[in-house]
Design goal:
Distance between the termini of chain B: 86 Å
Oligomer: heterodimer
Radius of gyration of chain A: 31 Å
Number of strands of chain B: 33
Largest interface: A-B, 100 and 109 residues
Number of helices of chain B: 45
Structural class of chain B: alpha+beta
GO cellular component, one term (chain A): endoplasmic reticulum
Number of strands of chain A: 11
Radius of gyration of chain B: 37 Å
Largest sheet of chain B: 9 strands, mixed
Strand content of chain A: 15-25%
Protein name (chain A): Cell cycle control protein
Shape of chain B: globular
Helix content of chain B: 40-55%
GO biological process, one term (chain A): phospholipid translocation
Helix content of chain A: 25-40%
Largest sheet of chain A: 5 strands, antiparallel
Main location (chain A): membrane
Strand content of chain B: 5-15%
Structural class of chain A: alpha+beta
Number of helices of chain A: 10
Organism (chain A): Sander lucioperca
Chain lengths: ~350, ~1300
């Protein structure tokens, strides 16, 4: 007798007496009562408060200058001109003067901004061919049907780059000039290259492989987008690494903005030379605009933004304020809970009623 | 194969169809036609024995499976959406990608179906290829073939321990008495052997069976699934008809035992066999929660449509407000722009596609998975495992686990459910004299007290001398003894498992005879010259003969005793040896345990000494003993003692109904030992040691209409035809007559009256009563009757009625011998279970076929009724009286409960109603009032109800009160009730498996109900309810992100999250945690739930998953999605962020919010929780990062390339993640904290107690219960219940209803 009762024994169908099968696994069961969560609430309030203050101080040190040039300065003339579609081909340039009262220190970023421009419309967003932009030759000559109706021009030639996004590229150009309190006007040097995501420039956008062919030859047999003044291979004739599909402006435009009011990077202040080594000095500035992009069809506005950045992005007061408000809210709740704790659950007796 | 015209094929098919549909089938032997082509054979229309349970074929799998799957509405919805996506004007995503979800769901389900089907195919193939023996005319012998080759009309030979391949009409067995034993455990789980008789005189069977001589036609009924019923007759060439029933049918799936071989004629094969017809798949019921869920899904649909309408309208208005045609408005291929209204119309459909996951399709799949997990845990619960039968709880219905947590009414059967259905002989009355069997009562009373005492009492047995040689094993295993101490049931297992006898536990087998009765018997034996004269002897003969008990020798081989002469098994020394080892093994436990408790032993033995003041020595041995042999020897014929080859000790009795076995054991205790039973004879050993062989002429089996059974035997000495009848008292008493002894008529009447008086007394004690009668049938009467009987047996129409009529014809003019009282002991922990269930707010009703008195008594015993309860006894003959009675009672009860004096008491009202009155109460016009009354009663006891009434009661209560009902029962008579209730529970007990087969859950003990409901029911319900609510929340919270974005993109249907990531989000990242939550979360520990049954109430009624909780979680979802969308939006406003770079942190934030929301809801974190939660987070980042790194142009319009990588390098991302999740979860967190602190629910309190250390917790638990219990204890202190008005119109005492009550009642009105 006294044999070991194995699985083949008389109780073969008896379930295993393991903690898992018997649902007796050791468990941590936190109780959400005022008593247990109070420290956590105070801690959270403190953390949020500190973060909020820190962020606020950081944001305070940034500077941003926004300039709506839609109808500002001499641009009202151009604005009127662009109202009429028949004048689309005519060149219009205008100038806006603005002062910078306090120097922008550090890296200064030059953005152009558009309001009410819905780059995030589904049909608009879809109207592009990434495969074409990544340099696949078949797609170059045979763009995706998503590009309709900007797939082929009236002559039946495939459009490169195809689609509504590329077609509607923002084509105003800017030159910024600094008028110091003393001395001559100095054009502000802007870096217009290397402003894209590294991966975009090097992976997502490639020109079709050209075996010793010029870019123009590669793109032969394609048409430029309807609204464009020049073909894609002439976007930057000086720099082959900024021409064709890998043109920085094109790449930046092709990254569709999330909201109808957005800005896009135009350039970064080149700080190698005086007086811009420390940023943009205070003084008067003029901005020369080649005014091409019509905005009246969508009641849009165009603007130029000059800003410095912080470690967590541009000048953004929302986040620090949100942190501070949240911190106050948590603190308030914590105080309420303290009262509750005081009145109800101070010694846990209530639970044993 | 010869070519046959299609017309002939069609004709044959039609003919075959007709042949199969006919009510009667004409079958003939296949042998004369052997070798002919199939179409020419007489039985060709009936299917072969090959079975095919697979649903699909290899070729047609895909279309059939798809067809099957599209029966689900959800899948159609899915496909509809996918198709919608192929319409260019409305497509929201790439059409090909939109197919992914539906493909995944369909293929997963198809894969599951395919694997299941393949398993079925494999088992089919295995079964079909099992070898068997079929007679072949060519070979002139049985040749080895496969199961699949068996056809209707074949002769199949089955040897011992083989499984029967098809339903066989038994024609020949190796046993000279023409008996074959089968074990039907494969079929119905009953482990006792059943006897099957061969059909005699149908074909030549001596000495060797000749199948070729079989030239009769077999006419049988259309196949049905009734395992206990079969009608057939064999028509011989000379037109003589011989009838046969189930007793000659070997069912497919049974195992042949104890019979060397048997030959049968195949009547049904393959799918037409009874076993296959009974083989239904799992049952599908829809749970209450699921029904509720479906209404919420409809709310979701409404919500979806509202949101889509908003989108469509918004798009229309936005387009209208545009001053011109901006460059971002893309015209179609022809450069044409749709009108705003048309675009708005299209946008509606686009929105449906975009927001589709608002309808939680994956919820259904998840619920199924969760239920599989829950069932896994239920079936693996060791507490629900019964060691006596080694059976776990079985879940037959796979999708109503959560209903277990919402039960409000339990309807229970009594016999076998509340009680053991292990009958113990308690007392008897013979010829009007009562024999109280006090010693036996004491023995049983001692057994009732906890287990240690039970062992002690067995220690009083004098150690039989032969045990000595097994001494060496005795002390070897002290641990085993301790083990034995732990569990009393287990001791029975180890002791009895080997004996394999169904009903021979020590408890039943041992009866201590009554001293006076013993003396009476010995006096009768010695005095009476002819034994039959003394009714005492007749009584015991009746006890031993009038039954269907099968005798077997208790050895491992289950050898059957088929005749005295053939008892060679016992002479096999090896067998005796092994059986003795086993016996001594079981005794060893008692012996060792005795050494642990000498003190207790002492006291008890003293007691018994006191009781047995002047007992003479032989009886004393008997009083303690197990060995009847000793008794018979000592009392009468010591010289015969060693002569007997068959020791009665070795015998064990297997009966279909346990009270039969109890009676046989009782007879054995008095020396009337049933030694063997064959269909034709019964061997009984008399106290004198003489073996009498009675020839059995007929057995009139028990049925529910007659409520009695009879055995007609021929007495070997007097050569008289004697009919022994036993039955329920009311079924017997009216058949009594006194022509048998004219001069005794007065005395006989007295006997009847006295016996009736004793019977009533037994019933009040809660005993089951049976009357025994005898009738001597004259030769002439017998002859004429037997002709009738033969005719009735051969009939195929109305056979039952005819057979019953013949039985009734014979069962008249009986003379009463006496009556027995058998105790059906309560199962262990029944009172505790009922108390706990009641504390849990469940009303327990008992529906029983027993007498009112018996039922009321059991009611008190199991604390269904309490002493201080007000018991309303309703028993009424006519409807008018009952109506007024009901009204009156209802009025009183209402007044009683509204009476302010009764507010502080919890005096309970219980209702006892009998079957006849119940019929009135359930009539359509009184139903409402009755239910109203029953609602106010704590307990309702229905006595003498028929199976049909049981289901009526359940249906009426369920429908009128709209409550969740559970029915629990163990017998075939409970099947209808089990099926009528929301949850049917079968107890796999002594009465076969019919209840279990009809049930949703099968348990083995009533006490398991407590844990099944209170713990598993509660868990399953809370888990599933929380999971479902969470699922709704999750989908709404996530989809709304997309919806809010529409306000910023001109309602154009843009998704800012990559579509693949959206699919992954639902498919991988957030699917496992809620499933794990639904399977494993534990709000309160099992100990706590068992300790405080009140906690169960949380699930009753609507429970946690209500309209309110649903909408609160919806609101929360809206709030959270607003926060998750607008905080990032405001933070990124006016920046140069692009759509997908904005979507990625949104996705991440939403992911964290959803997971953290779940972790607020998770009540207990185990390792599994941690692994799955952290695993999900890891999976999210790994998969998203990998996807972002790989996918350059894989999903054209959207492009997640390198976005998350950049985001994770940006501190802004983390700042946003922190603040957004904090703000999103703050309200819920605070709500939980405040609710738990200010107004904690009982569950929260219980959780709090759970955290204390065990001893403190137990104390608190006791305090809690006593706090509730005060109210329950209080009324007992009050001397009189404050209900002066209630006493008159209704019966307060549970005495038997008399017409007086009712008459008074009528006058009252």
């Amino acid at each position: 007798m006294g044999k070991v009762k194995g699985k083949s024994g008389p109780l073969a169908r008896r379930p295993d007496n393991s903690a898992f099968k018997q649902q007796r696994l050791p468990a941590w069961s936190p109780m959400l009562t005022a008593t247990t969560v109070l420290p956590f609430f105070y801690l959270m309030a403190l953390i949020c408060m500190l973060l909020g203050v820190w962020l606020l101080l950081t944001v305070q040190s940034t500077q941003e200058i926004k300039l709506d040039y839609t109808e500002a300065g001499t641009c009202d003339m151009c604005f009127e001109k662009r109202k009429n579609v028949s004048n689309a081909a005519q060149i219009c340039t205008c100038t806006v003067v603005f002062p910078i009262k306090k120097a922008l220190k550090g890296d200064v970023f030059f953005y152009y901004g558009l309001q009410n421009f819905h780059q995030n419309l589904r049909r608009y967003m879809d109207s592009r061919d990434d495969a074409q932009m990544v340099g696949r030759k078949t797609n170059l000559k045979n763009p995706s049907s998503y590009c309709e109706p900007f797939m082929k021009d009236p002559n039946g030639l495939p459009i490169a780059p195809c689609g509504a996004v590329a077609n509607s590229i923002f084509n105003d150009t800017f030159t910024l000039t600094y008028h110091g309190s003393s001395g001559p006007s100095i054009p502000v040097p802007l870096l217009r290259k290397g402003i894209t995501w590294y991966t975009d420039k090097n992976v997502k956008y490639r020109n079709p492989k050209n075996d010793n062919m010029t870019l123009a030859q590669v793109f032969e047999g394609t048409a430029r987008p309807l609204y464009w003044q020049k073909p894609v291979y002439e976007l930057d004739l000086l720099d082959p690494t900024n021409n064709g599909f890998i043109n920085d402006d094109l790449i930046i435009w092709m990254r569709e903005a999330a909201f109808p009011n957005f800005k896009k990077l135009y350039g970064v202040l080149y700080r190698a030379k005086q007086p811009f080594t420390k940023g943009l000095p205070a003084g008067n500035y003029t901005i020369n605009i080649s005014y091409n992009f019509p905005v009246q069809y969508f009641r849009g506005r165009k603007e130029v933004v000059l800003t410095t950045l912080t470690w967590f992005g541009g000048q953004n007061h929302f986040l620090p304020i949100a942190y501070l408000v949240t911190s106050c809210l948590i603190l308030l709740i914590a105080i309420i809970l303290t009262v509750v704790w005081w009145k109800f659950g101070k010694n846990g007796k209530r639970l044993e009623e | 194969m010869t070519w046959r015209s299609p017309l002939a094929l069609v004709r044959d098919a039609l003919r075959g169809q007709r042949a199969r549909e006919k009510d009667l089938r004409n079958l003939a032997s296949n042998l004369p036609y052997e070798g002919l082509e199939r179409a020419k054979q007489p039985n060709c229309y009936f299917p072969g024995n090959a079975i095919k349970t697979t649903k699909y074929t290899l070729l047609l799998f895909i279309p059939m499976n798809l067809f099957e799957q599209f029966h689900r509405l959800a899948n159609i919805y899915f496909v509809g959406l996918a198709i919608l996506n192929f319409v260019p004007v409305v497509s929201a995503f790439q059409p090909e990608v939109a197919l992914i979800p539906i493909c995944v769901v369909l293929s997963l389900t198809a894969l599951k179906d395919a694997s299941e089907d393949f398993r079925r195919y494999q088992s089919d193939r295995k079964l079909n290829n099992t070898p068997c023996l079929i007679y072949s005319r060519k070979e002139q012998q049985f040749i080895k073939r496969h199961w699949k080759d068996v056809r209707v009309g074949d002769f199949v030979k089955v040897v011992c321990n083989e499984i029967v391949p098809a339903d066989l009409l038994l024609l020949h067995t190796s046993d000279p008495s023409g008996v074959c034993h089968i074990e039907t455990s494969n079929l119905d789980g009953e482990i006792n052997l059943k006897q099957r008789k061969m059909m005699s005189g149908v074909c030549i069977s001596d000495p060797e069976f000749e199948p070729e001589s079989f030239n009769s036609a077999v006419v049988c009924e259309k196949p049905n699934n009734n395992l206990n019923h079969f009608k057939c007759y064999v028509e011989k060439p000379n037109k003589e008809k011989v009838g046969a029933g189930i007793e000659s049918l070997l069912l497919r799936g049974c195992t042949v035992r104890n019979t060397d071989h048997a030959v049968g004629f195949v009547v049904y094969a393959g799918h037409e066999t009874k076993a296959m017809l009974n083989n239904k798949g799992p049952r599908y019921k829809r749970s209450k929660l699921e029904r509720k869920l479906n209404t919420d899904v409809i709310f979701c649909v409404i919500l979806l449509f509202t949101m889509c309408l908003i989108g469509a309208l918004g798009h229309f208005l936005w387009l209208q407000a545009l001053p011109g045609v901006p460059p971002y408005l893309v015209p179609d291929g022809n450069g044409h722009l749709d009108s705003p209204s048309l675009s708005g119309f299209y946008m509606f459909f686009t929105m449906i596609i975009l927001l589709q996951i608002l309808i939680p399709i994956s919820l259904y799949v998840s619920i199924e998975l969760v239920k599989i997990g829950q069932i896994f845990f239920i079936t693996n619960d060791i507490d629900l495992h019964d060691e006596g039968t080694d059976s776990r709880v079985q879940c037959k219905a796979l999708n109503i686990t959560e209903d277990l947590g919402q039960i409000e009414y339990i309807f229970s059967d009594k016999t076998g459910t509340l009680t053991e259905n292990k009958m113990v002989f308690r007392r008897c009355s013979i010829m009007g004299t009562e024999y109280a069997h006090k010693e036996n009562a004491i023995r049983l009373a001692v057994l009732d007290v906890p287990e240690s005492e039970e062992e002690v009492i067995f220690n009083q047995q004098p150690r039989p001398p032969r045990i000595g040689w097994s001494l060496d094993t005795e002390d070897s295993n002290p641990e085993d003894t301790r083990h034995h101490h732990d569990n009393r049931r287990k001791s029975k297992v180890t002791g009895n498992a080997q004996s394999d006898a169904a009903f021979s536990s020590l408890l039943e087998a041992v009866v201590i005879p009554d001293r006076t009765l013993l003396q009476q018997i010995s006096r009768a034996e010695s005095s009476s010259s002819s034994r039959n004269i003394d009714p005492h002897l007749d009584f015991f003969l009746g006890l031993a003969i009038c039954n269907t008990v099968v005798v077997s020798v208790a050895t491992a081989q289950r050898q059957r005793v088929s005749g005295v002469s053939r008892s060679d098994q016992t002479s096999n020394p090896l067998d005796t040896l092994s059986s003795l080892v086993k016996k001594s093994g079981s005794r060893q436990h008692f012996f060792t345990s005795w050494q642990h408790k000498p003190k207790k032993n002492r006291t008890i033995s003293e007691d018994s000494v006191e009781e047995e003041d002047h007992v003479k020595p032989p009886v004393k041995i008997e009083g303690s003993g197990e060995t009847n042999k000793l008794h018979t020897c000592s009392l009468h014929a010591p010289s015969q003692c060693d002569k007997s080859a068959m020791t009665p000790d070795n015998l064990s009795y297997e009966a279909e109904s346990p009270d039969e076995a109890a009676l046989v054991y009782a007879a054995k205790a008095y020396g009337f030992t049933l030694l063997a039973r064959t269909p034709d004879s019964v061997t009984v050993r008399l106290p004198s040691g003489e073996d009498l062989v009675f020839q059995v002429l007929d057995t009139l089996t028990f049925d529910y209409n007659r409520k009695r059974m009879s055995v007609l035997v021929r007495h070997p000495i007097t050569k008289e035809y004697v009919l022994y009848t036993k039955g329920a008292d009311h079924a017997i008493m009216e058949l009594l007559a006194t022509p048998y002894a004219e001069h005794l008529s007065g005395k006989q009447k007295n006997i009847a009256a006295d016996t009736q008086y004793h019977l009533d007394g037994y019933a009040k004690e809660g005993l089951r009563t049976l009357c025994f009668t005898k009738k001597v049938v004259s030769d002439k009467a017998y002859e004429s009757w037997s002709v009738n009987r033969q005719r009735a047996l051969a009939a195929i129409d109305n056979r039952e009625e005819l057979v019953m009529d013949t039985a009734v014809q014979l069962e008249t003019d009986l003379s009463l011998l006496g009556a027995t009282g058998i105790e059906d002991r309560l199962q262990e922990s029944v009172p505790e279970t009922i108390m706990a269930l009641r504390e849990a707010g469940i009303q327990v009703w008992v529906l029983t076929g027993d007498k009112t008195e018996t039922a009321v008594n059991i009611g008190y015993a199991c604390r269904l009724l309490e002493e201080e309860d007000l018991v309303i006894n309703m028993s009424c003959g006519n409807k008018f009286a009952f109506t007024s009675m009901l009204d009156c009672t209802l009025e009183e009860v209402r007044r009683f409960s509204e009476d302010p004096r009764n507010v502080d008491t919890t005096q309970n009202i219980s209702l006892v109603i009998d079957g006849h009155t119940l019929t009135l109460a359930l009539s359509s016009d009184l139903q409402k009032r009755f239910v109203d009354l029953a609602k106010r009663c704590r307990t309702v006891l229905c006595c003498r109800v028929t199976p049909l009434q049981k289901s009526r009661v359940v249906t009426v209560v369920r429908e009128k009160l709209n409550v969740m009902t559970l029915a629990v029962g163990d017998g075939a008579n409970d099947v209808s009730m089990i099926q009528a209730a929301d949850v049917g529970i079968g107890i796999s007990g002594q009465e076969g498996m019919q209840a279990v087969m009809a049930s949703d859950f099968a348990i083995s003990r009533f006490k398991h109900l407590k844990k099944l409901l209170l713990v598993h029911g509660h868990w399953c319900y809370t888990r599933l309810a929380s999971m479902i609510i969470y699922f709704f929340y999750k989908n709404v919270a996530y989809v709304n992100l997309l919806f809010w974005h529409q306000f910023l993109c001109g309602f154009s249907g843009t998704a800012m999250i990559d579509y693949w990531l959206m699919i992954f989000f639902n498919l991988f990242f957030t699917s496992v945690p809620p499933i794990m939550f639904g399977i494993m979360d534990k709000d309160v520990s099992a100990e706590m739930l068992l300790g405080v049954p009140e906690l169960y109430r949380t699930g009753q009624g609507t429970g946690e998953y209500t309209f309110k909780t649903f909408w609160i979680s919806m609101l929360d979802a809206f709030y959270q999605s607003l926060v998750c969308f607008f905080i990032p939006y405001l933070a990124y406003q006016d920046s140069d962020i692009d759509v997908f770079t904005f979507g990625t942190p949104l996705n991440t934030i939403s992911f964290f919010t959803i997971l953290l929301h779940l972790s607020i809801e998770i009540k207990a974190w185990t390792v599994v929780h941690w692994v799955i939660m952290l695993g999900s987070v890891a999976l999210y980042f790994i998969v998203t990062l990998a996807y972002s790194a790989i996918c350059v142009t894989c999903n054209p319009p959207s492009n997640p390339y390198w976005i998350l990588q950049r985001q994770m390098a940006d501190p802004m991302f983390y700042l946003l993640c922190i603040i957004t999740t904090v703000v999103a979860l703050l309200p819920r967190y605070m709500f939980h904290v405040l609710r738990n602190s200010i107004a904690p629910s009982p569950l929260v309190k219980a959780r709090h107690l759970d955290r204390l250390d065990p001893s403190t917790r137990d104390q608190c638990m006791k305090m809690w219960r006593s706090f509730r219990g005060i109210a329950q204890v209080k009324p007992s202190r009050l001397s009189t219940p404050p209900s002066p008005t209630l006493e008159t119109p209704v019966d307060i005492h549970p005495h038997s209803p008399t017409t007086f009550d009712i008459m008074w009642d009528e006058r009252h009105h």
